[in-house]
């Protein structure tokens, strides 16, 4: 059993049945106890001596690098779902937003909004998951904030994380680089996160073995860069799904994106759920997938490198950049027909992340 | 009328009566419109071309500096209150958390959690206030995220901001530096923010002209440093009030802190409200106050410099560090008696920031 797992179990035994009160957000004694015992117990203390309101770190070891900064709030429901939790998501989601720029993620913040009445057990599990995910992604959670709102003013627990990374000034991974002929590569099956959340909500009588694909992508991306793949543009594929990212590419450079339906990597079970529920898998959320645009001549090599990485099983070319249908994404179906894949208009599944 | 005010009014006229739906958080078309028209309309776009998920900036103009990173979530209710709003607060609060380390705040993130059904008017007012506060504090809001939760799952609107600043490596403003004889200086009247919020809630039949003291402190702090004041430790005085900060000092170095009640700067009206409602002004929240610890021989000069700054009217020495009652804050009353001022135990006023 890991260190974090040990700490989690002993803390839950000790105080798991206590509940969060407004005093835990007051700046006073109760909050101090919460921070000391739960938060710093898992994240560690960034500085010696009394806790400060800000983390200070030295980046002089990274000359010729710029700073990458990002933020995401996490409001997924339920807090725990097959294969992952809001805690893992709050770390990996922000790590991935930093990483797709080519940056190495280093430091994270953690802003908690807790609902009065939340069980300490629920909070401890989430914080332990954040610690576990940070360890796996090799980032440090160095500063934070805790607010408590009255019962009914939030749904259990929301998390915001901001992330800071360093990006080599020689890199320029941005949508305007995309050209006709480039290939879009994805690092595995789409839709797992969306289906896992749907099943976890229990509103539908949906039995599935699918688990969320939530994972950090920094290792995979840094491997691609180290192997010399000249990635031109990259996004992680999250809410809005693959369709949304490909539309951002098409609109961003006013070129066409052509998907081959037969090439979309997807588990049979996910396909089945989509057919039964009338969902389009291209819009299903993912939390451990990226869509990288690379020059055609590097595409096979990129797929090969990615496939060998634990975060890249089932990697493949999923689309290409074309001159036709500028600004639009079109899918060539298995039966030869073509259809436009637009940006999501309504909301397929709320509070997915 | 300022540029921001103009933009706000024309946008409210155009779309103020629309409401936020779950689709505004879906990653699709509605969200794109919200970001383009409301968010980027006020914050500007950090990069040319399509929007990226992370902001990249170069800090090579700051050699011999480290990075300061902080975060705060804002859940204050109501969203608008006398003298300020959650939008001003979300910028100034984070600017101040960065600044009290001696760092120059540069970049902010903005994470929004919106409740389905929120009026666009309410959102636009808050975003315009954030833009106004950022302009005043000379920081840029460079990256963000928007989530929408179903009606009843949050109370209108929560904001998280994270801040990045640069701090000169020659500075070392930290609690362990505090020594016996040092003076604690505050930059003006305490309790205004707490009383303004209390009045704005309308639950009590409280008529007051007090407005929130919400303001950025970076200009004041940089002036003190530029004038050569060797600040030893510094905190902004927010939730938990002056009592909390002084207790953090006392406990942090295991020395005593002695307050002279007669020296506490406070408006007569705030004193009156406290007497009527049985509140202790030492625990009332502030949003534009700092408590700086300086060597005794610099105290008068520091007060003089601060008093000349717009953010430091009514600055004064409020306490001193003593050997007695180690780890505790004691107040010498106007009538000669002494009482211990402990950390806040319960919750005096929830959702104050």
Automatic annotation (TrEMBL), chains A, B:
GO BP term (any one): protein maturation
InterPro entries the UniProt entry points to: HypE, PurM-like_C_dom, PurM-like_C_sf, PurM-like_N, PurM-like_N_sf
Domain PurM-like N-terminal: 52-167
CDD domains named in the record: HypE (cd02197)
Pfam families the UniProt entry points to: AIRS (PF00586), AIRS_C (PF02769)
Occurrences of domain PurM-like C-terminal (ranges): 179-330
Annotated transmembrane regions: none
Segments forming a coiled coil: none
PANTHER family, A to Z: CARBAMOYL DEHYDRATASE HYPE, HYDROGENASE ISOENZYMES FORMATION PROTEIN HYPE
UniProt family annotation: Belongs to the HypE family.
Name by which UniProt lists this protein: Hydrogenase isoenzymes formation protein HypE
Species the sequence originates in: Hydrogenovibrio crunogenus
Designated gene of the protein: hypE_1
């Amino acid at each position: 059993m890991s260190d974090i797992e040990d700490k989690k179990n002993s803390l839950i035994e000790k105080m798991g049945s206590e509940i969060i009160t407004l005093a835990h957000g007051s700046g006073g004694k109760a909050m101090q106890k919460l921070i000391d015992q739960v938060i710093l117990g898992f994240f560690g203390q960034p500085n010696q001596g009394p806790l400060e309101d800000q983390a200070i770190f030295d980046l002089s070891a990274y000359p010729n690098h710029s700073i990458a900064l990002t933020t995401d709030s996490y409001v997924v429901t339920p807090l725990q779902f097959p294969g992952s939790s809001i805690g893992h998501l709050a770390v990996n989601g922000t790590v991935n937003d930093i990483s797709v720029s080519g940056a190495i993620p280093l430091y994270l913040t953690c802003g908690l909004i807790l609902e009065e009445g939340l069980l300490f057990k629920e909070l401890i599990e989430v914080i332990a998951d954040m610690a576990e995910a940070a360890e796996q992604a090799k980032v440090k959670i160095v500063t934070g904030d805790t607010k408590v709102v009255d019962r009914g003013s939030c749904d259990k627990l929301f998390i915001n994380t901001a992330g800071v990374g360093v990006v080599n000034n020689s890199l320029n991974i941005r949508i305007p680089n995309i050209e006709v002929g480039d290939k879009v590569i994805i690092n595995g099956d789409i839709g797992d996160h969306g289906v896992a959340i749907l099943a976890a909500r229990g509103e539908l009588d949906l039995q599935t073995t699918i688990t969320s694909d939530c994972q950090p992508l920094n290792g995979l991306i840094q491997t691609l860069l180290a192997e010399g793949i000249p990635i031109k543009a990259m996004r992680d594929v999250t809410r809005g799904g693959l369709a949304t990212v490909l539309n951002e590419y098409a609109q961003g450079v006013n070129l066409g994106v052509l998907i081959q339906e037969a090439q979309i990597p997807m588990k049979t079970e996910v396909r089945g759920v989509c057919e039964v529920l009338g969902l389009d898998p291209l819009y299903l959320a993912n939390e451990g997938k990226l869509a990288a645009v690379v020059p055609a001549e590097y595409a096979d090599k990129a797929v090969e490198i990615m496939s060998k990485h634990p975060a890249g099983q089932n990697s493949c070319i999923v689309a290409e950049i074309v001159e036709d249908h500028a600004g639009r994404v079109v899918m060539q179906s298995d039966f030869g027909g073509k259809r436009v894949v637009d940006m999501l208009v309504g909301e397929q599944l709320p509070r997915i992340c």
